[in-house]
């Protein structure tokens, strides 16, 4: 019967083209608005690294000690010296230090003008732990970290910019006044959100290049505004070593812990470390160390903004308004088919048959509305991409799940809002309609 | 086949009570051709709607094939209409967007026939009404008489035990009307009961029995032959 009802639905569509077109348009408009905002919100709240998001932890240590009651709040950054003191623990499988600087970069052989670029400073484990894909070469090794070598990894975009997309491994890039040798070029990297850095850049492109954190330290490259830097206590001296020895919290530390046992062991380890520091006068406020896994981190740091969620709710309201209007059209459409309903009832259709027939008809209209809505949503996403050019383009792309969800949603809401018109149509008294066909 | 005992129909509105049909008794046996005559507004169509299970009666007992229809649920009444009853209406009531084949297919869809069985029944019905070559035509491409033939084909495709025809020739000229009457008689000859509402006394005379309804009163029920003798 389903195929029969689909056939009837298509015939009905042709019978009242304007009414059907308006219904499709209303559904399409509501669906496209909803799915445009939902796509952005959904892509923002995706698990960025599902294979290990429950094993990667942000290490948070509250070393503040001014006696002020900070409540439950912690910072996602720790001090350089705390990082140095815990980084060599053998408990984590991987340890990743994160910071950033900005500099001027250019290809010394081809470019005259240097380009201001964002530099992610990290260590070799970064590329392993975050499973970065490489187009050419690879990340640097631990030896490069230890020796603070002047090596550099480029994003694909930077490689296009500085080396016209050629394999640049082994070539040099002028980094300020120094030369850094290219060891690898990243391929397109879909990690979204990029949770490892500062919150405001979670949905942006990755930084242009990557260099060893120790090279940043060795070359005394000061952090700018690309990292959060909380200096709750002033420090003496204005040289780089004074900054490193200070209580300023500016280094982000991530660790990968294989299982709960490792997690508990590492928690005990940093608690023990904090206790030792407390014995030396630091951590005087409290010992409050946390290991926050990726999903929890996304929630706590409110990576997906309330604005994004609000936009989804507003568009859902818009969808409801569209559907209420559509419901009026459904009423008109089914009222116009009262004669046919009367005839079908007379020749043996039960109320259930009528309900099934009109439900399929609305499902077909909803499906067509969903298809048109999908096309409109692509325009909406393209407009959003233009408007929010600082956001990563992958946020504005529907995946297969979203495409299928769009169609399913369109069909479901069409049938749901058609319940009343369908119910009314099914109550048609055949004897009262048989002369009105 | 059809037995009505003390059957009556009352329409109630907020402050008006209309007795559409006074209590009456009527029995129609399988294979009979009965004409129901009477002036406009006398209650003929109400009678036909009740007999065809399109409306409920207010009083009395109506048994169809020995079953008291007042005990049937809406779903079972639909099934009864589908299996036991065929309808032919004055205005044909064909769906203009469906071709002849699909119009006749409509009642068969609500029965669990296979596609092959449906096809056989549709083609047989079309042949019976002389329109087998026009199965892909649409109702608007046919004359009134041909449209009524399609409606008759739709009514007989499901092999009902009774056909209710509500002024089946009312919209046709006399030549076409006679063609339809002949067709109904042929169908009746094969054992299907026909209950036909008509204004036309001449056509009524072609039935085996005449039931007259006037002001809601079933006032006459005599075989045509006996009436002719009288």
Give descriptors for this structure.
heterodimer; A: 437 residues; alpha+beta; 2 domains; 6-stranded mixed barrel; 11 strands; B: 230 residues; alpha/beta; 6-stranded mixed β-sheet; 4-stranded antiparallel β-sheet; 10 strands; disordered C terminus
Sheet with the most strands: spatial strand order of chain A = 3-4-9-6-8-7
Give the overall silhouette of chain A: elongated
Question: Span between N and C termini of chain B?
Answer: 28 Å
Strand order of the largest sheet of chain B: 6-7-8-3-9-10
Helix fraction bin of chain B: 25-40%
Class based on secondary structure composition and strand pairing of chain B: alpha/beta
Gyration radius over CA of chain B? 18 Å
Strand content of chain B: 25-35%
Work out the helix count of chain A: 16
Query: What do the pLDDT scores of chain B average to?
Result: 86
The strand count of chain A comes to 11
How many structural domains in the coordinates of chain A? 2
Measured by residues with Cβ under 8 Å of the partner chain's Cβ, the largest interface is: A-B, 25 and 27 residues
Short description:
Chain A has 437 residues and is of the alpha+beta class.
Describe the fold and architecture.
Chain A has 437 residues and is α+β, with helices and mostly antiparallel strands. Chain A folds into two domains: 2-45 and 305-436, no CATH class; 56-300, no CATH class. Chain A contains 16 helices and eleven strands. In chain A, strand 3 (94-106) and strand 4 form a beta hairpin. In chain A, 42% of the residues are buried. Chain B is an alpha/beta fold. Helices cover 36% and strands 28% of the residues of chain B. Chain B contains eight helices and ten strands. Chain B is globular, with a radius of gyration of 18 Å. The two termini of chain B are 28 Å apart. The interface between A and B is medium-sized, with 25 and 27 residues.
């Amino acid at each position: 019967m389903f195929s029969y009802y689909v056939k009837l639905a298509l015939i009905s569509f042709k019978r009242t083209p304007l009414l059907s077109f308006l219904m499709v348009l209303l559904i399409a408009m509501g669906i496209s608005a909803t799915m445009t905002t939902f796509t952005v919100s959904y892509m923002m709240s995706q698990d960025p690294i599902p294979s290990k998001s429950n094993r990667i932890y942000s290490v948070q240590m509250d070393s503040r000690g001014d006696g002020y009651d900070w409540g439950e709040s912690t910072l996602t950054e720790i001090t350089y010296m705390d990082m140095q003191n815990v980084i060599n623990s053998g408990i984590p499988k991987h340890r990743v230090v994160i910071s950033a600087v900005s500099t001027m970069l250019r290809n010394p052989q081809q470019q005259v003008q240097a380009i201001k670029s964002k530099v992610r400073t990290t260590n070799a484990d970064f590329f392993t732990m975050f499973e970065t894909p490489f187009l050419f070469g690879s990340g640097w090794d631990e030896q490069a970290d230890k020796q603070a070598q002047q090596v550099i990894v480029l994003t694909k975009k930077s490689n296009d910019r500085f080396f016209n997309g050629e394999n640049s491994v082994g070539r040099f890039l002028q980094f300020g006044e120094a030369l850094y040798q290219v060891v690898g070029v990243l391929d397109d990297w879909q990690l979204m959100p990029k949770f490892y850095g500062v919150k405001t850049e979670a949905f942006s492109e990755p930084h242009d290049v990557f260099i060893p954190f120790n090279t940043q330290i060795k070359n005394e490259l000061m952090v700018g505004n690309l990292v959060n830097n909380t200096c709750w206590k002033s420090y003496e001296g204005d040289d780089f070593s004074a900054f490193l020895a200070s209580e300023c919290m500016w280094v982000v530390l991530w660790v990968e812990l294989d299982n709960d046992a490792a997690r508990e062991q590492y928690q005990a380890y940093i608690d023990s470390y904090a206790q030792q520091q407390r014995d030396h006068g630091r951590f005087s406020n409290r010992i409050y160390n946390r290991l926050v896994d990726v999903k929890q981190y996304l929630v706590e740091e409110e990576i997906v903004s309330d604005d994004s969620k609000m936009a989804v709710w507003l568009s859902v309201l818009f969808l409801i308004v569209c559907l209420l209007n559509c419901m009026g059209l459904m009423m008109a459409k089914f009222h116009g088919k009262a004669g046919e309903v009367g005839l079908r009832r007379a020749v043996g259709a039960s109320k259930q048959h009528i309900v099934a027939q009109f439900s399929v008809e609305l499902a077909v209209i909803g499906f067509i509305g969903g298809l048109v809505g999908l096309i409109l949503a692509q325009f909406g996403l393209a407009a959003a991409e233009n408007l929010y050019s600082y956001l990563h383009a992958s946020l504005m792309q529907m995946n297969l799940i979203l495409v299928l969800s769009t169609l399913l949603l369109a069909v479901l809401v069409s049938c749901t809002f058609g319940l009343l018109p369908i119910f009314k149509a099914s109550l048609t008294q055949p004897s009262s309609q048989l002369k009105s066909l | 086949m059809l037995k009505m005992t003390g059957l009556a129909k009352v329409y109630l509105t907020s402050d008006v009570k209309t007795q559409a049909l006074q209590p009456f008794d009527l029995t129609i046996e399988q294979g009979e051709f009965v004409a129901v005559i009477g002036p406009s507004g006398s209650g003929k169509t109400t009678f036909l709607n009740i007999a065809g299970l399109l409306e409920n009666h207010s009083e009395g007992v109506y048994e169809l094939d020995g079953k008291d229809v007042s005990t049937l649920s809406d779903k079972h009444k639909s099934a009864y209409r589908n299996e036991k009853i065929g309808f032919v209406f004055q205005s044909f009531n064909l769906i203009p967007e469906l071709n002849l084949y699909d119009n006749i297919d409509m009642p068969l869809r609500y029965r669990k026939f296979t596609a092959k069985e449906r096809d056989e029944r549709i083609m047989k019905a079309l042949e019976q009404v002389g329109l087998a070559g026009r199965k892909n035509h649409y109702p608007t491409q046919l004359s009134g008489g041909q449209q009524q033939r399609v409606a008759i084909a739709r009514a007989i495709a499901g092999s009902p035990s009774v056909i209710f025809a509500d002024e089946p020739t009312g919209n046709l000229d006399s030549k076409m009307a006679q063609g339809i009457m002949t067709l109904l008689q042929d169908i009746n000859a094969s054992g299907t009961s026909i209950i036909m509402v008509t204004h036309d006394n001449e056509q009524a005379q072609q039935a085996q029995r005449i039931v007259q309804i006037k002001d809601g009163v079933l006032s006459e029920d005599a075989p045509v032959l006996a009436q002719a003798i009288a």
